[in-house]
Amino acid sequence: MSSYEDRLKALRAQLVRQKLDGFVVPLTDEHMSEYVGAYAQRLAWLTGFQGSAGSAVVLPEAAAIFVDGRYTLQVREQVDGAHWQYQSVPQTSIAAWLKDHAGEGARIGYDSWLHTRAWVKQATQALADKGAELVAVDTNPVDAVWPDRPAPSDAKLVVHEDRYAGKNAAEKRADIADWLVSKKADAAVLSALDSIAWAFNIRGKDVERTPVALAYAIVHADATADLYVAPEKMDEAVAKHLGNAVRIHDRAAFADALAALSGKSVVADPERAVAAIFEALDAGGAQILSLRDPVVLPKAIKNDTEIAGHKAAQARDGAALSRFLHWIAVEAPKGGLDEMSAADRLEAFRQDTGLLQDLSFDTISGAGPNGAVVHYKVEEKTNRPIETGSFYLVDSGGQYRDGTTDVTRTIAIGTPSEEMKQRFTLVLKGHIALARAVFPVGTRGGQLDVLARQYLWAQGLDYAHGTGHGVGSFLSVHEGPQRIATFGGGDEPLVAGMILSNEPGYYKTGEYGIRIENLVLVEERAIAGGEKPMLGFETLTFAPIDRNAIVTDLLDAGERAWVDAYHAQVLAVVGPQLDGEALAWLQAACAAL
User: Fold this and answer.
1) So which residues are the signal peptide here (predicted)?
2) How far apart are CA 86 and CA 96, in angstroms?
3) Are 88 and 67 in contact (CB under 8 A)?
């Protein structure tokens, strides 16, 4: 198994043993997580792909890997095109590809614990049109040939204290129970890890960069709950925190518990619960209500305590990032820095706060052409020096008990070209347009996306990712349901209390990348003489935007005023946390345009 070619051959041999003509390998786990534990990194093990979203299909004579526009460059660098066809979504899909490539009468395997019911239906129909069938497996064939597959984490659960949560777990269960009564339902299945973490005010260390624990839960209309978690993950403090109204079971007992809900009206989320959960409920005779997980929206709408905590985390994180920006301004012109050393130094500045629990994702540290790889992950073999006359893009964040941060800055090393500065300014204009947006209650994120793209579009330019994603409260850095995007979501109405990113970008393949990202809070806006309730954004992230990359003449008076006001806020929030040369640098970096 020393090469990815060997692994592909081994999987094909295993498919023959399981009497299958193909298999689908998604990058997810039994909880439909975006970021997964090492034990669930099947796609990476099989193909070498290190991105956070993708899928693969293996047939006897062909294999394909499916990624979206964020990973167009990365997949070609990490996955061997001699063995894998590169497929772009949403332009194509696994179902469409299988319809074209599966043989007549083929049996295509899938793991029902790793796919949604909607995907199973779509793929089943596509294969039926070809005279082939989709077959659920009892044993995942990748697991069968992965000799050193890691075991799931056995890290202990930890209590997320009320002083950070702002609402105790019993109150949250009572709210879920009231919702169940309103839907005439007896219980709700919670399988999304961040939903369970939020509802029970617990956190964990089972997934790198996301403080969640591997568990399932069933919450009942009487406000009691059953939590399914490996026994070794519990301790006395967590048991006391959960109380007698939460019954604890081994995680392995969850499937049987679903089958035992006979005659009950049970809510399961078709987007977040895997097909196997629906199949177990069906088999047990439960009446299934396909409704959104009742935790999703309350989790997205932050309470006052969570908002205050997030602002405290942002102020702390902004100071760490500003120290880093000062450091790189001093050290980069000397030469000798590279992507890895810069990322390590940035993490060290965050560690110096004494409150960092983890990074919120692997730092994207992209110098020159690597900055054009949207979700670039630096490795020894790709590590580039940070060179004069280039852009250095750094997208990073921290997990603190009071909040989760995510911020991108693009830094001009030396003197950038006029084209680089012009395109940086176009991205900045889009960022400002979104930051200043005022919109009626009920507006969806997708309706705002064009604000950030308009100046790039006017020059025949664009970027292949969404403009904004939701962010959790000491939880996932990518949190739904809110998004600012015209594809892959963006149809959720924005509500006061939601936190999103504002991150337009531009990427010139082989040369440089640009992204400017702050987090923003949706807030109510009173408009004098207005007739409708309105919303806007409060910017939460505070770190300088590189003035050396801005073509000031391309900004109108209002945009220049926004930049100056933003930098004045940065100085007010971050300045008191710095001293000496770092403070002097910050004052210069925040000077009026």
Assistant:
1) none
2) 14
3) yes
CA distance to 188, 216, 252, 503, per residue, from 270 (Å): 12, 16, 22, 29
pLDDT given for residue 52 in this prediction: 85
Beta strand spans in 318-389 (E): 356-359, 364-367
**What pLDDT, on a 0 to 100 scale, did the predictor assign at position 508?**
97
Question: Do the beta carbons of residue 257 and residue 236 sit within 8 Å?
Answer: no
Q: Which residues of 433-466 are buried (b: 16+ CB within 10 A; e: fewer)?
A: bbbebebeeebbbbbbbebbbebbeeeeeebebb
Q: Are 314 and 540 in contact (CB under 8 A)?
A: yes
Over residues 109-128, mean pLDDT: 97
- Angle subtended at Cα 100 by Cα 97 and Cα 104, rounded to the nearest 5 degrees: 125
Distance CA 25, CA 424 (A): 38
| DSSP H or E segment with residue 220 | strand 216-220
Tokens read off for 198: 């939020």
Sheet holding 398-400, edge to edge: 356-359, 398-400, 403-404
d(CA 375, CA 378): 10
Q: Which pTM does this prediction carry?
A: 0.94
246-301 pLDDT per residue, tens: 999 999 999 999 999 999 999 999 999 999 999 999 999 999 999 999 999 999 99
**CA–CA separation, 262 vs 245, rounded Å?**
22
Task: Give the tens place of pLDDT for each residue, 540-569.
Answer: 999 999 999 999 999 999 999 999 999 999
**What does the buried/exposed string (b/e) look like for 160-185 if buried means 16 or more CB atoms within 10 Å of the residue's CB?**
beeebbbeebeebbebbbebbeeeeb
Domains present along the chain, CATH in parentheses: 4-145 (3.40.350.10), 158-294 (3.40.350.10), 301-589 (3.90.230.10)
User: Are the beta carbons of 405 and 430 closer than 8 angstroms?
Assistant: no
